[in-house]
Amino acid sequence: MAAPLAAIALTAGLSAPAAAFSPERAAILVDAVRDNGCEMAGQQAPAALEPLGLDAIEVQSFVDILYGAELVRVSDDLEHLILSEQLCTAQGSDSMALIVSAFASQEATLQPWEPDFTPARGAEFVAVLRDNDCGMSDAQAGDILPGHGFSPEISRDIVTVMLEGGLADLSEDASQVNLSAPLCAADPVDDSATLEAALAAWHLAHNQTAAEEVTQ
């Protein structure tokens, strides 16, 4: 189960994947959130997580696994990742046991996140942002996107690919996503092809990274 998270913000400022998907790596994330008062806002993530060697793909995968096991939740405003009371208070081996159990129950230990949307759906998302002055805040997203049939999961997928492909960027406080100037001004008829190219580039880059890790 994917977390309905503004993980767009939580992961966007982090570097591209390095990723060894393991409970031990997930524990680094959990410890960082616990040390931050058992919750973390998206704008806090780069400074808190990147020095620990955690990248965006790892973080998203770990959040999905922990969310599926009800060990984390998202604040009502979708801006904060919050540890469950059980995971927040657990220490040492007790904390690790919860994380290991979450990995086992999700059967996703070695399954990295991949975007799951069509270019046409991505183009529809771009159209919504373009009609909203080429940007959208977290608060606006909760009001606008459901009416266009966009769940938090697919919105996250589209924005993640757009950010990595240079088609969008985040505000300094990571609370708003904005289309790039060229995409904002582009002819909407070209949006589907643009998203198709961005998806292809994402898969090429990440499949190549995975292949290189296998050969090392």
What is the average of the pLDDT values?
Answer: 83
Q: Tally the helices.
A: 11
CA distance, first residue to last residue: 31 Å
Q: What is the CATH topology classification name of the largest domain?
A: Arc Repressor Mutant, subunit A
Total domain modules: 2
CA radius of gyration is 17 Å
Helical proportion, percent range: 55-70%
Shape: elongated
Which sheet architecture does the biggest sheet show?
3 strands, antiparallel
The fraction of residues assigned to DSSP E strands is 5-15%
Question: How many individual β-strands?
Answer: 6
Strand line-up across the major sheet: 1-3-2
| CATH-derived architecture of the largest domain | Orthogonal Bundle
Short description:
With 216 residues, the chain is mostly helical. It is built from eleven helices and six strands. Strand 2 and strand 3 form a beta hairpin.
3D architecture notes:
By secondary structure, the chain is mostly helical. It folds into two domains: 7-106, Winged helix-like DNA-binding domain superfamily/Winged helix DNA-binding domain (Arc Repressor Mutant, subunit A), CATH 1.10.10.10; 119-215, Arc Repressor Mutant, subunit A (Orthogonal Bundle), CATH 1.10.10. It has helices spanning 7-12, 23-35, 45-49, 56-68, 85-89, 92-106, 119-130, 138-144, 152-164, 181-185, 191-215; strands at residues 39-41, 72-74, 80-83, 135-137, 168-170, 176-179. It has a three-stranded antiparallel β-sheet with strand order 1-3-2. Strands 4-6-5 form a three-stranded antiparallel β-sheet. Helix 7 (119-130) packs across helix 11 (191-215). The two termini are 31 Å apart. The model is unreliable at 1-19 and 209-216 (pLDDT under 50).
